[in-house]
Amino acid sequence: MSLLVTGTVAIDSVKTPFGQRETCLGGSATYFSVAASHFTPVCLVGAIGEDFPEDYLKIFTGRPIDTTGLERRSGSLTFRWKGSYAGAMNEAKTLETRLNIVAEAPPVIPEKFRDAGFVFLANTAPAVQLTLLQQVKNPTLSVADTMNFWIQNTRDDLLELIEYIDALVLNDAEARMFTGADNLVAAARQIVQMGLKFVVVKKGEHGVLLMTEENQAFVLPAFPTDAVKDPTGAGDSFAGGMMGCLAAQNSLDLPTLKKALAYGTCVASLVIEDFSLDRWQIAGRPDIEQRYRQLKDMMQF
Amino acid sequence: MSLLVTGTVAIDSVKTPFGQRETCLGGSATYFSVAASHFTPVCLVGAIGEDFPEDYLKIFTGRPIDTTGLERRSGSLTFRWKGSYAGAMNEAKTLETRLNIVAEAPPVIPEKFRDAGFVFLANTAPAVQLTLLQQVKNPTLSVADTMNFWIQNTRDDLLELIEYIDALVLNDAEARMFTGADNLVAAARQIVQMGLKFVVVKKGEHGVLLMTEENQAFVLPAFPTDAVKDPTGAGDSFAGGMMGCLAAQNSLDLPTLKKALAYGTCVASLVIEDFSLDRWQIAGRPDIEQRYRQLKDMMQF
Q1: Of A63, A162, A191, B28, which residue has the fewest beta carbons closer than 10 angstroms?
Q2: According to CATH, what is the number of the domain A3-146+225-298?
Q3: What is the CA radius of gyration of chain A?
Q4: Nearest-CA residue of chain A relative to B186?
Protein backbone atom coordinates (compact mmCIF):
# COMPACT_ATOMS: atom_id res chain seq x y z
CA MET A 1 0.00 0.00 0.00
CA SER A 2 1.18 3.54 -0.66
CA LEU A 3 2.71 5.49 2.21
CA LEU A 4 2.36 9.24 2.59
CA VAL A 5 4.31 11.44 4.97
CA THR A 6 3.77 15.10 5.80
CA GLY A 7 6.50 16.95 7.66
CA THR A 8 9.53 19.15 7.43
CA VAL A 9 12.48 19.08 5.08
CA ALA A 10 14.88 21.22 7.03
CA ILE A 11 18.31 22.68 7.50
CA ASP A 12 19.85 21.62 10.81
CA SER A 13 22.90 22.61 12.81
CA VAL A 14 23.91 19.95 15.30
CA LYS A 15 26.55 19.58 17.96
CA THR A 16 27.18 16.36 19.87
CA PRO A 17 30.12 15.08 21.95
CA PHE A 18 31.30 13.43 18.71
CA GLY A 19 31.48 16.53 16.52
CA GLN A 20 29.33 19.16 14.90
CA ARG A 21 27.71 20.10 11.65
CA GLU A 22 26.94 23.69 10.71
CA THR A 23 23.98 23.42 8.31
CA CYS A 24 23.18 19.94 7.18
CA LEU A 25 20.11 18.16 5.86
CA GLY A 26 17.41 17.46 8.43
CA GLY A 27 13.65 17.49 8.91
CA SER A 28 11.09 14.95 10.06
CA ALA A 29 9.82 14.11 6.56
CA THR A 30 13.37 13.68 5.33
CA TYR A 31 14.36 11.19 8.02
CA PHE A 32 11.01 9.42 7.76
CA SER A 33 11.03 9.12 3.96
CA VAL A 34 14.51 7.73 3.63
CA ALA A 35 13.92 5.23 6.45
CA ALA A 36 10.57 4.09 5.02
CA SER A 37 11.88 3.91 1.46
CA HIS A 38 13.91 0.82 2.38
CA PHE A 39 10.58 -0.98 2.68
CA THR A 40 8.05 0.65 0.38
CA PRO A 41 7.56 3.64 -1.97
CA VAL A 42 6.97 6.91 -0.14
CA CYS A 43 5.03 10.06 -1.10
CA LEU A 44 6.59 13.09 0.55
CA VAL A 45 4.66 16.27 1.32
CA GLY A 46 6.50 19.32 2.65
CA ALA A 47 7.76 22.76 1.77
CA ILE A 48 11.21 24.28 1.40
CA GLY A 49 12.31 27.85 0.82
CA GLU A 50 14.49 29.39 -1.83
CA ASP A 51 17.52 29.01 0.46
CA PHE A 52 17.33 25.22 0.41
CA PRO A 53 20.53 23.82 -1.17
CA GLU A 54 19.70 21.94 -4.38
CA ASP A 55 22.23 19.22 -3.68
CA TYR A 56 20.53 18.29 -0.40
CA LEU A 57 17.73 16.90 -2.56
CA LYS A 58 20.07 14.22 -3.87
CA ILE A 59 19.22 12.17 -0.77
CA PHE A 60 15.88 11.34 -2.42
CA THR A 61 17.36 10.43 -5.80
CA GLY A 62 17.54 6.74 -6.62
CA ARG A 63 15.13 5.90 -3.80
CA PRO A 64 11.41 5.19 -4.24
CA ILE A 65 10.48 8.61 -2.85
CA ASP A 66 8.02 10.71 -4.85
CA THR A 67 8.81 14.37 -4.14
CA THR A 68 5.91 15.78 -6.20
CA GLY A 69 4.49 17.07 -2.92
CA LEU A 70 7.66 18.92 -1.91
CA GLU A 71 6.87 22.56 -2.65
CA ARG A 72 9.74 24.95 -3.19
CA ARG A 73 8.53 28.46 -2.44
CA SER A 74 10.41 31.48 -3.72
CA GLY A 75 10.37 34.32 -1.24
CA SER A 76 10.25 31.80 1.63
CA LEU A 77 12.95 30.47 3.87
CA THR A 78 13.39 26.83 4.93
CA PHE A 79 12.67 25.63 8.47
CA ARG A 80 15.90 25.67 10.47
CA TRP A 81 16.74 23.91 13.70
CA LYS A 82 19.90 24.21 15.75
CA GLY A 83 20.48 21.91 18.67
CA SER A 84 23.02 20.09 20.76
CA TYR A 85 23.27 16.86 22.70
CA ALA A 86 25.35 16.10 25.77
CA GLY A 87 25.96 13.14 28.04
CA ALA A 88 23.83 10.13 27.21
CA MET A 89 22.29 12.23 24.39
CA ASN A 90 18.76 11.21 25.36
CA GLU A 91 17.41 14.68 24.80
CA ALA A 92 18.25 17.46 22.37
CA LYS A 93 18.80 20.94 23.66
CA THR A 94 17.25 23.29 21.14
CA LEU A 95 19.51 26.31 20.66
CA GLU A 96 17.51 27.98 17.91
CA THR A 97 14.37 27.34 15.89
CA ARG A 98 13.52 29.42 12.85
CA LEU A 99 10.03 28.38 11.81
CA ASN A 100 10.22 30.29 8.52
CA ILE A 101 8.12 28.32 6.01
CA VAL A 102 6.46 26.29 8.78
CA ALA A 103 4.73 29.50 9.93
CA GLU A 104 3.21 29.94 6.47
CA ALA A 105 0.28 28.02 4.92
CA PRO A 106 0.90 24.28 5.08
CA PRO A 107 1.67 22.43 1.86
CA VAL A 108 -1.19 20.95 -0.10
CA ILE A 109 -1.39 17.21 -0.66
CA PRO A 110 -1.20 16.56 -4.41
CA GLU A 111 -4.27 14.96 -5.94
CA LYS A 112 -2.40 11.79 -6.86
CA PHE A 113 -1.33 11.23 -3.24
CA ARG A 114 -4.84 11.48 -1.81
CA ASP A 115 -5.68 7.81 -1.96
CA ALA A 116 -2.68 6.85 0.18
CA GLY A 117 -3.31 3.78 2.33
CA PHE A 118 -0.86 4.66 5.08
CA VAL A 119 -0.36 8.18 6.37
CA PHE A 120 2.21 9.56 8.80
CA LEU A 121 1.71 13.09 10.07
CA ALA A 122 5.09 14.13 11.44
CA ASN A 123 5.18 16.48 14.39
CA THR A 124 3.56 19.88 13.86
CA ALA A 125 0.49 21.74 15.18
CA PRO A 126 -2.36 19.23 15.60
CA ALA A 127 -4.72 21.56 13.72
CA VAL A 128 -2.36 21.50 10.74
CA GLN A 129 -2.04 17.72 11.00
CA LEU A 130 -5.84 17.46 10.89
CA THR A 131 -6.07 19.76 7.84
CA LEU A 132 -3.53 17.57 6.07
CA LEU A 133 -5.22 14.31 7.07
CA GLN A 134 -8.60 15.52 5.83
CA GLN A 135 -7.17 15.81 2.33
CA VAL A 136 -6.56 12.06 2.28
CA LYS A 137 -9.59 10.02 1.23
CA ASN A 138 -9.82 6.91 3.37
CA PRO A 139 -6.50 5.68 4.70
CA THR A 140 -6.10 2.21 6.22
CA LEU A 141 -3.85 3.64 8.90
CA SER A 142 -3.14 7.22 9.92
CA VAL A 143 -0.51 7.90 12.58
CA ALA A 144 0.51 11.22 14.08
CA ASP A 145 3.59 12.25 16.02
CA THR A 146 3.28 14.99 18.61
CA MET A 147 5.35 16.77 21.25
CA ASN A 148 5.22 18.54 24.62
CA PHE A 149 4.55 21.98 23.09
CA TRP A 150 1.24 20.87 21.50
CA ILE A 151 0.23 18.87 24.57
CA GLN A 152 0.66 21.96 26.73
CA ASN A 153 -0.58 24.66 24.39
CA THR A 154 -3.07 23.08 21.98
CA ARG A 155 -4.45 20.20 24.00
CA ASP A 156 -7.99 20.54 22.59
CA ASP A 157 -6.69 20.47 19.03
CA LEU A 158 -4.70 17.35 19.87
CA LEU A 159 -7.76 15.68 21.39
CA GLU A 160 -9.74 16.54 18.26
CA LEU A 161 -6.99 15.13 16.03
CA ILE A 162 -7.07 11.90 18.04
CA GLU A 163 -10.70 11.44 17.02
CA TYR A 164 -9.57 11.19 13.40
CA ILE A 165 -6.27 9.31 13.54
CA ASP A 166 -5.66 5.64 14.30
CA ALA A 167 -2.47 5.85 16.31
CA LEU A 168 -0.19 8.27 18.09
CA VAL A 169 3.59 8.28 18.51
CA LEU A 170 5.17 10.28 21.33
CA ASN A 171 7.99 10.02 23.82
CA ASP A 172 7.82 8.85 27.43
CA ALA A 173 7.94 12.30 29.04
CA GLU A 174 5.19 13.47 26.68
CA ALA A 175 3.00 10.43 27.44
CA ARG A 176 3.32 11.21 31.15
CA MET A 177 2.62 14.91 30.58
CA PHE A 178 -0.39 14.18 28.38
CA THR A 179 -2.07 11.87 30.89
CA GLY A 180 -0.68 12.86 34.26
CA ALA A 181 0.08 9.16 34.82
CA ASP A 182 3.56 8.42 36.16
CA ASN A 183 3.49 4.77 35.20
CA LEU A 184 4.23 4.51 31.49
CA VAL A 185 2.05 1.46 30.89
CA ALA A 186 -0.85 3.26 32.54
CA ALA A 187 -0.12 6.40 30.51
CA ALA A 188 -0.06 4.45 27.24
CA ARG A 189 -3.30 2.70 28.16
CA GLN A 190 -5.00 6.03 28.89
CA ILE A 191 -3.93 7.45 25.56
CA VAL A 192 -5.19 4.40 23.64
CA GLN A 193 -8.50 4.73 25.44
CA MET A 194 -8.91 8.23 24.00
CA GLY A 195 -9.99 6.32 20.89
CA LEU A 196 -6.89 4.96 19.16
CA LYS A 197 -6.00 1.57 17.70
CA PHE A 198 -2.56 1.77 19.27
CA VAL A 199 0.02 4.11 20.75
CA VAL A 200 3.79 3.90 20.53
CA VAL A 201 5.82 5.45 23.35
CA LYS A 202 9.44 6.15 22.38
CA LYS A 203 11.94 5.87 25.24
CA GLY A 204 15.18 6.78 23.43
CA GLU A 205 18.04 4.54 24.52
CA HIS A 206 15.51 2.41 26.43
CA GLY A 207 13.46 1.41 23.38
CA VAL A 208 9.73 1.55 22.74
CA LEU A 209 6.46 0.55 24.32
CA LEU A 210 3.42 -0.41 22.26
CA MET A 211 -0.09 -0.48 23.69
CA THR A 212 -3.01 -1.69 21.60
CA GLU A 213 -6.73 -1.10 21.99
CA GLU A 214 -7.00 -4.77 23.02
CA ASN A 215 -4.79 -3.82 25.97
CA GLN A 216 -1.85 -5.78 24.65
CA ALA A 217 1.51 -4.33 25.65
CA PHE A 218 4.73 -4.99 23.78
CA VAL A 219 8.08 -3.63 24.89
CA LEU A 220 11.21 -3.65 22.82
CA PRO A 221 14.60 -2.39 23.97
CA ALA A 222 16.69 -0.20 21.70
CA PHE A 223 19.35 -2.01 19.72
CA PRO A 224 22.37 -1.95 22.06
CA THR A 225 25.10 0.06 20.41
CA ASP A 226 27.87 2.33 21.62
CA ALA A 227 28.39 3.83 18.18
CA VAL A 228 25.87 6.66 18.59
CA LYS A 229 27.14 9.92 17.07
CA ASP A 230 24.04 12.04 16.48
CA PRO A 231 20.56 11.06 17.71
CA THR A 232 18.81 13.65 15.50
CA GLY A 233 16.07 12.00 13.48
CA ALA A 234 16.00 8.79 15.54
CA GLY A 235 12.28 9.13 16.27
CA ASP A 236 11.28 9.96 12.69
CA SER A 237 13.52 7.22 11.33
CA PHE A 238 11.94 4.78 13.79
CA ALA A 239 8.50 5.86 12.58
CA GLY A 240 9.65 5.53 8.96
CA GLY A 241 10.86 1.97 9.51
CA MET A 242 7.68 1.09 11.37
CA MET A 243 5.27 2.62 8.84
CA GLY A 244 7.33 1.37 5.90
CA CYS A 245 7.09 -2.17 7.23
CA LEU A 246 3.35 -1.89 7.95
CA ALA A 247 2.63 -0.45 4.50
CA ALA A 248 4.74 -3.13 2.81
CA GLN A 249 2.95 -5.89 4.74
CA ASN A 250 -0.42 -4.12 4.48
CA SER A 251 -1.42 -5.50 7.84
CA LEU A 252 -2.10 -4.21 11.33
CA ASP A 253 -2.28 -7.43 13.31
CA LEU A 254 -0.15 -7.76 16.44
CA PRO A 255 2.61 -9.95 14.91
CA THR A 256 3.03 -7.39 12.11
CA LEU A 257 2.98 -4.46 14.54
CA LYS A 258 5.72 -6.14 16.61
CA LYS A 259 7.75 -6.81 13.48
CA ALA A 260 7.27 -3.18 12.40
CA LEU A 261 8.46 -1.91 15.77
CA ALA A 262 11.54 -4.10 15.54
CA TYR A 263 12.33 -2.81 12.04
CA GLY A 264 11.82 0.76 13.25
CA THR A 265 14.22 0.08 16.09
CA CYS A 266 16.89 -1.25 13.72
CA VAL A 267 16.49 1.62 11.25
CA ALA A 268 16.79 4.19 14.06
CA SER A 269 19.86 2.46 15.48
CA LEU A 270 21.58 2.81 12.11
CA VAL A 271 20.81 6.46 11.37
CA ILE A 272 22.19 7.67 14.72
CA GLU A 273 25.59 6.17 13.97
CA ASP A 274 26.48 9.22 11.87
CA PHE A 275 25.50 12.87 11.51
CA SER A 276 22.44 13.96 9.54
CA LEU A 277 21.43 11.18 7.08
CA ASP A 278 25.02 10.30 6.23
CA ARG A 279 24.66 6.72 7.42
CA TRP A 280 22.34 6.02 4.47
CA GLN A 281 25.14 6.82 2.04
CA ILE A 282 26.50 3.39 2.89
CA ALA A 283 23.82 1.50 4.80
CA GLY A 284 20.83 -0.10 3.09
CA ARG A 285 18.27 -2.84 3.46
CA PRO A 286 20.90 -5.61 3.98
CA ASP A 287 22.27 -3.71 7.01
CA ILE A 288 18.75 -3.32 8.37
CA GLU A 289 18.06 -7.03 7.86
CA GLN A 290 21.31 -8.01 9.57
CA ARG A 291 20.50 -5.89 12.59
CA TYR A 292 16.92 -7.21 12.60
CA ARG A 293 18.21 -10.80 12.80
CA GLN A 294 20.61 -9.79 15.59
CA LEU A 295 17.81 -8.13 17.57
CA LYS A 296 15.50 -11.10 17.02
CA ASP A 297 18.19 -13.55 18.19
CA MET A 298 19.05 -11.36 21.15
CA MET A 299 15.42 -11.23 22.27
CA GLN A 300 15.05 -15.00 22.31
CA PHE A 301 15.58 -16.81 25.56
CA MET B 1 24.25 -26.12 43.24
CA SER B 2 23.86 -24.42 46.60
CA LEU B 3 23.27 -20.67 46.67
CA LEU B 4 24.59 -18.40 49.38
CA VAL B 5 23.56 -14.80 49.96
CA THR B 6 25.10 -12.26 52.33
CA GLY B 7 23.20 -9.07 53.05
CA THR B 8 20.79 -7.28 55.31
CA VAL B 9 17.63 -8.45 57.01
CA ALA B 10 16.12 -5.11 57.87
CA ILE B 11 13.23 -3.08 59.16
CA ASP B 12 11.94 -0.63 56.56
CA SER B 13 9.52 2.27 56.55
CA VAL B 14 8.25 3.04 53.08
CA LYS B 15 5.97 5.62 51.54
CA THR B 16 4.83 5.52 47.94
CA PRO B 17 1.98 7.20 46.04
CA PHE B 18 0.00 4.01 46.80
CA GLY B 19 0.29 4.02 50.57
CA GLN B 20 2.76 3.68 53.35
CA ARG B 21 4.13 1.18 55.84
CA GLU B 22 5.64 2.21 59.15
CA THR B 23 8.10 -0.59 59.98
CA CYS B 24 7.85 -3.62 57.78
CA LEU B 25 10.18 -6.42 56.77
CA GLY B 26 12.94 -5.43 54.36
CA GLY B 27 16.61 -5.99 53.62
CA SER B 28 18.61 -7.11 50.61
CA ALA B 29 19.16 -10.68 51.85
CA THR B 30 15.47 -11.00 52.67
CA TYR B 31 14.27 -9.98 49.23
CA PHE B 32 17.01 -12.00 47.54
CA SER B 33 16.41 -15.19 49.55
CA VAL B 34 12.68 -15.34 49.08
CA ALA B 35 13.01 -14.62 45.33
CA ALA B 36 15.75 -17.24 44.86
CA SER B 37 13.98 -19.85 46.99
CA HIS B 38 11.39 -20.29 44.21
CA PHE B 39 14.19 -21.89 42.19
CA THR B 40 16.70 -23.46 44.55
CA PRO B 41 17.60 -23.81 48.26
CA VAL B 42 19.21 -20.69 49.71
CA CYS B 43 21.73 -20.22 52.55
CA LEU B 44 21.19 -16.84 54.18
CA VAL B 45 23.93 -14.95 56.02
CA GLY B 46 23.09 -11.76 57.88
CA ALA B 47 22.62 -10.25 61.30
CA ILE B 48 19.64 -8.84 63.17
CA GLY B 49 19.36 -7.06 66.49
CA GLU B 50 17.30 -7.76 69.56
CA ASP B 51 14.62 -5.39 68.26
CA PHE B 52 13.85 -7.57 65.27
CA PRO B 53 10.23 -8.80 65.46
CA GLU B 54 10.13 -12.57 65.78
CA ASP B 55 7.12 -12.88 63.50
CA TYR B 56 8.97 -11.21 60.59
CA LEU B 57 11.03 -14.41 60.43
CA LYS B 58 7.94 -16.35 59.37
CA ILE B 59 8.66 -15.22 55.80
CA PHE B 60 11.45 -17.83 55.69
CA THR B 61 9.34 -20.65 57.14
CA GLY B 62 8.18 -23.26 54.69
CA ARG B 63 10.65 -22.10 52.07
CA PRO B 64 13.99 -23.78 51.31
CA ILE B 65 15.91 -21.04 53.11
CA ASP B 66 18.53 -22.08 55.66
CA THR B 67 18.76 -19.31 58.25
CA THR B 68 21.61 -20.90 60.23
CA GLY B 69 23.72 -17.94 59.13
CA LEU B 70 21.28 -15.33 60.42
CA GLU B 71 22.83 -14.10 63.66
CA ARG B 72 20.59 -12.49 66.25
CA ARG B 73 22.74 -10.28 68.46
CA SER B 74 21.49 -9.16 71.82
CA GLY B 75 22.55 -5.63 72.61
CA SER B 76 22.45 -4.76 68.92
CA LEU B 77 19.81 -3.03 66.84
CA THR B 78 18.64 -4.07 63.40
CA PHE B 79 19.51 -2.11 60.25
CA ARG B 80 16.69 0.32 59.50
CA TRP B 81 15.86 2.13 56.30
CA LYS B 82 13.21 4.73 55.72
CA GLY B 83 12.46 5.94 52.22
CA SER B 84 9.86 7.24 49.86
CA TYR B 85 9.06 7.05 46.18
CA ALA B 86 7.31 9.61 44.01
CA GLY B 87 6.27 9.95 40.38
CA ALA B 88 7.48 7.07 38.22
CA MET B 89 9.10 5.60 41.37
CA ASN B 90 12.36 4.93 39.54
CA GLU B 91 14.44 6.07 42.47
CA ALA B 92 14.00 5.86 46.22
CA LYS B 93 14.49 8.96 48.29
CA THR B 94 16.22 7.85 51.48
CA LEU B 95 14.74 9.69 54.43
CA GLU B 96 16.71 7.94 57.14
CA THR B 97 19.28 5.18 57.46
CA ARG B 98 20.21 3.69 60.79
CA LEU B 99 23.17 1.40 60.14
CA ASN B 100 23.02 -0.12 63.63
CA ILE B 101 24.22 -3.72 63.30
CA VAL B 102 25.68 -3.06 59.83
CA ALA B 103 28.26 -0.81 61.50
CA GLU B 104 29.38 -3.70 63.70
CA ALA B 105 31.50 -6.72 62.73
CA PRO B 106 30.03 -8.50 59.72
CA PRO B 107 28.40 -11.90 60.25
CA VAL B 108 30.52 -14.99 59.87
CA ILE B 109 29.71 -17.55 57.20
CA PRO B 110 28.88 -20.85 58.92
CA GLU B 111 31.23 -23.71 58.16
CA LYS B 112 28.53 -25.72 56.43
CA PHE B 113 27.83 -22.87 53.96
CA ARG B 114 31.47 -22.48 52.89
CA ASP B 115 31.34 -24.84 49.93
CA ALA B 116 28.51 -22.89 48.27
CA GLY B 117 28.64 -23.03 44.49
CA PHE B 118 26.87 -19.75 43.87
CA VAL B 119 27.43 -16.65 45.99
CA PHE B 120 25.64 -13.31 45.96
CA LEU B 121 27.16 -10.49 47.96
CA ALA B 122 24.35 -7.98 48.40
CA ASN B 123 25.23 -4.31 48.53
CA THR B 124 27.55 -3.25 51.36
CA ALA B 125 31.13 -1.94 51.68
CA PRO B 126 33.30 -3.71 49.07
CA ALA B 127 35.90 -4.53 51.75
CA VAL B 128 33.22 -6.34 53.75
CA GLN B 129 32.02 -8.13 50.63
CA LEU B 130 35.59 -9.33 50.03
CA THR B 131 35.97 -10.54 53.63
CA LEU B 132 32.76 -12.53 53.24
CA LEU B 133 33.71 -13.93 49.85
CA GLN B 134 37.08 -15.12 51.13
CA GLN B 135 35.33 -17.38 53.61
CA VAL B 136 33.80 -19.34 50.72
CA LYS B 137 36.06 -22.06 49.34
CA ASN B 138 35.80 -22.12 45.58
CA PRO B 139 32.49 -20.90 44.21
CA THR B 140 31.45 -21.51 40.60
CA LEU B 141 29.99 -18.01 40.43
CA SER B 142 30.33 -15.05 42.76
CA VAL B 143 28.34 -11.90 42.06
CA ALA B 144 28.36 -8.61 43.95
CA ASP B 145 25.92 -5.74 43.99
CA THR B 146 27.24 -2.23 44.61
CA MET B 147 26.05 1.37 44.71
CA ASN B 148 27.06 4.98 44.14
CA PHE B 149 28.33 5.50 47.69
CA TRP B 150 31.03 2.79 47.33
CA ILE B 151 31.92 3.87 43.81
CA GLN B 152 32.56 7.39 45.05
CA ASN B 153 34.10 6.71 48.44
CA THR B 154 35.77 3.30 48.28
CA ARG B 155 36.66 2.96 44.62
CA ASP B 156 39.96 1.16 45.30
CA ASP B 157 38.21 -1.39 47.50
CA LEU B 158 35.65 -1.96 44.78
CA LEU B 159 38.37 -2.43 42.16
CA GLU B 160 40.07 -4.93 44.44
CA LEU B 161 36.79 -6.80 44.99
CA ILE B 162 36.34 -6.99 41.21
CA GLU B 163 39.59 -8.98 41.00
CA TYR B 164 37.95 -11.70 43.07
CA ILE B 165 34.34 -11.81 41.91
CA ASP B 166 32.94 -13.07 38.61
CA ALA B 167 30.19 -10.56 37.99
CA LEU B 168 28.82 -7.22 39.13
CA VAL B 169 25.26 -5.94 39.35
CA LEU B 170 24.62 -2.20 39.49
CA ASN B 171 22.18 0.36 38.16
CA ASP B 172 22.53 2.56 35.09
CA ALA B 173 23.49 5.76 36.87
CA GLU B 174 26.10 3.84 38.86
CA ALA B 175 27.55 2.22 35.72
CA ARG B 176 27.92 5.68 34.19
CA MET B 177 29.42 7.07 37.38
CA PHE B 178 31.86 4.18 37.74
CA THR B 179 33.23 4.48 34.19
CA GLY B 180 32.59 8.06 33.16
CA ALA B 181 30.99 6.66 29.97
CA ASP B 182 27.66 8.21 29.02
CA ASN B 183 26.69 5.41 26.67
CA LEU B 184 25.43 2.50 28.74
CA VAL B 185 26.68 -0.21 26.39
CA ALA B 186 30.13 1.37 26.49
CA ALA B 187 29.95 1.66 30.29
CA ALA B 188 28.97 -2.00 30.68
CA ARG B 189 31.78 -3.04 28.35
CA GLN B 190 34.33 -1.05 30.35
CA ILE B 191 33.22 -2.67 33.60
CA VAL B 192 33.42 -6.19 32.15
CA GLN B 193 36.92 -5.40 30.92
CA MET B 194 37.98 -4.73 34.51
CA GLY B 195 38.13 -8.52 34.70
CA LEU B 196 34.59 -9.88 35.03
CA LYS B 197 32.72 -12.68 33.33
CA PHE B 198 29.67 -10.46 32.97
CA VAL B 199 27.97 -7.34 34.27
CA VAL B 200 24.25 -6.68 34.70
CA VAL B 201 23.06 -3.09 34.52
CA LYS B 202 19.65 -2.55 36.10
CA LYS B 203 17.55 0.18 34.50
CA GLY B 204 14.45 0.08 36.70
CA GLU B 205 11.27 0.42 34.64
CA HIS B 206 13.43 0.15 31.50
CA GLY B 207 14.74 -3.35 32.23
CA VAL B 208 18.27 -4.73 32.26
CA LEU B 209 21.38 -4.84 30.12
CA LEU B 210 23.78 -7.78 30.21
CA MET B 211 27.31 -7.55 28.86
CA THR B 212 29.55 -10.63 28.78
CA GLU B 213 33.32 -10.92 28.57
CA GLU B 214 32.82 -12.18 24.99
CA ASN B 215 31.32 -8.75 24.27
CA GLN B 216 27.83 -10.14 23.85
CA ALA B 217 25.08 -7.72 24.83
CA PHE B 218 21.58 -8.75 25.82
CA VAL B 219 18.84 -6.28 26.65
CA LEU B 220 15.58 -7.16 28.27
CA PRO B 221 12.77 -4.70 29.02
CA ALA B 222 11.01 -4.77 32.36
CA PHE B 223 7.76 -6.68 32.42
CA PRO B 224 5.19 -4.03 31.46
CA THR B 225 2.85 -3.55 34.40
CA ASP B 226 0.93 -0.65 35.82
CA ALA B 227 0.34 -2.43 39.11
CA VAL B 228 3.52 -1.16 40.80
CA LYS B 229 2.89 -0.27 44.45
CA ASP B 230 6.32 -0.34 46.10
CA PRO B 231 9.57 -0.78 44.16
CA THR B 232 11.60 -1.55 47.31
CA GLY B 233 13.56 -4.76 46.85
CA ALA B 234 13.10 -4.90 43.08
CA GLY B 235 16.85 -5.06 42.45
CA ASP B 236 17.54 -7.70 45.10
CA SER B 237 14.54 -9.74 43.99
CA PHE B 238 15.77 -9.52 40.41
CA ALA B 239 19.18 -10.76 41.55
CA GLY B 240 17.51 -13.53 43.56
CA GLY B 241 15.55 -14.75 40.56
CA MET B 242 18.63 -14.55 38.36
CA MET B 243 20.99 -16.32 40.77
CA GLY B 244 18.32 -18.84 41.76
CA CYS B 245 17.84 -19.80 38.13
CA LEU B 246 21.60 -20.01 37.46
CA ALA B 247 22.19 -22.14 40.56
CA ALA B 248 19.28 -24.43 39.69
CA GLN B 249 20.57 -24.84 36.13
CA ASN B 250 24.21 -24.93 37.28
CA SER B 251 25.28 -23.28 34.07
CA LEU B 252 26.71 -19.96 32.94
CA ASP B 253 26.36 -20.19 29.18
CA LEU B 254 24.64 -17.35 27.33
CA PRO B 255 21.26 -19.07 26.83
CA THR B 256 21.11 -19.79 30.59
CA LEU B 257 22.19 -16.24 31.48
CA LYS B 258 19.42 -14.84 29.25
CA LYS B 259 16.89 -17.19 30.82
CA ALA B 260 18.11 -16.18 34.30
CA LEU B 261 17.72 -12.49 33.47
CA ALA B 262 14.20 -13.11 32.24
CA TYR B 263 13.31 -14.99 35.43
CA GLY B 264 14.83 -12.20 37.51
CA THR B 265 12.72 -9.71 35.58
CA CYS B 266 9.52 -11.65 36.26
CA VAL B 267 10.29 -12.14 39.95
CA ALA B 268 11.02 -8.42 40.37
CA SER B 269 7.81 -7.47 38.54
CA LEU B 270 5.81 -9.52 41.03
CA VAL B 271 7.36 -8.30 44.28
CA ILE B 272 6.78 -4.62 43.43
CA GLU B 273 3.05 -5.18 43.10
CA ASP B 274 2.66 -4.96 46.88
CA PHE B 275 4.44 -3.47 49.87
CA SER B 276 7.39 -5.21 51.53
CA LEU B 277 7.35 -8.94 50.65
CA ASP B 278 3.57 -9.21 50.90
CA ARG B 279 3.20 -10.31 47.28
CA TRP B 280 4.86 -13.64 48.18
CA GLN B 281 2.05 -14.42 50.60
CA ILE B 282 0.01 -15.32 47.52
CA ALA B 283 2.37 -15.50 44.56
CA GLY B 284 4.61 -18.49 43.92
CA ARG B 285 6.44 -20.35 41.21
CA PRO B 286 3.32 -20.79 39.02
CA ASP B 287 2.88 -16.99 38.91
CA ILE B 288 6.54 -16.58 37.99
CA GLU B 289 6.21 -19.20 35.24
CA GLN B 290 3.07 -17.58 33.86
CA ARG B 291 4.78 -14.20 33.68
CA TYR B 292 7.88 -15.82 32.17
CA ARG B 293 5.80 -17.30 29.34
CA GLN B 294 4.10 -13.94 28.80
CA LEU B 295 7.46 -12.14 28.61
CA LYS B 296 8.87 -14.78 26.28
CA ASP B 297 5.85 -14.53 23.97
CA MET B 298 5.94 -10.76 24.10
CA MET B 299 9.59 -10.69 23.07
CA GLN B 300 9.04 -12.84 20.01
CA PHE B 301 8.48 -11.10 16.72
Answers
A1: A63
A2: 3.40.1190.20
A3: 18
A4: A226
